[in-house]
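Good morning C.,

I know you're traveling, so I'll keep this short. The sequence:
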Amino acid sequence: MQEVVLPLELGRATGSAPSRRLRLQGKVPATVYGLGKEAVTASVDYRELRGALSTEAGLNVVLNLDVAGQHEMALVKEMQRHPLRGDVTHVDFLRVEPDSDVAVEVPIRLTGTATALLEINGIVERSLDTLRVLAKPRSIPNELVLDVSELTVGDTLTVADLELPPGVTSLVDESAPVVSGIITRSALEAAAEAEAAEAEAEAEAEGDGEGAAEDDAGDSD
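The tokens, ready to paste straight into the viewer:
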């Protein structure tokens, strides 16, 4: 995985008022910590942060933090956003070693169309959107792909069905469900109504047939 250089500025003042002033200047308050080193407060240009996180790796991009000329490998550990506007209000960077495993969440992307399931008004129900894995920073996959083409009612695809790249280990039990094929309540109700209507029509047809037979018998007398 390619590293992205991200410059940081040290020496920001802490507190809500200084943080607001930073954000008005187009900067995001940040903290860098990990590997037993002292945590440092910093700020990062919002546009540069957005650009760094816009690669295919998303939040799992391996960052090369440029902190006052010193370079440190890091990952985004946590990113806080404004509850209404969605703006990034603070970001935490975790220092990592290139040859040490780190735990991260990797997105799961579904591919294919569950045709047999859709034909009976079923749906693909997701149990997991991401998978927590252990991997060295440069081995973290951008995503994990799961084909649901053969999924039908009652089927379940589990973590064991995900193909993990070499050097990547799941921290989730292999039996944990990822997706299942189910019938919705509305589809079940519609099927029950259709069966009831069909049974009623058959009963009426049988009744009409018996009545006609009795009429024929009366005429012959």
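Safe travels,
E.
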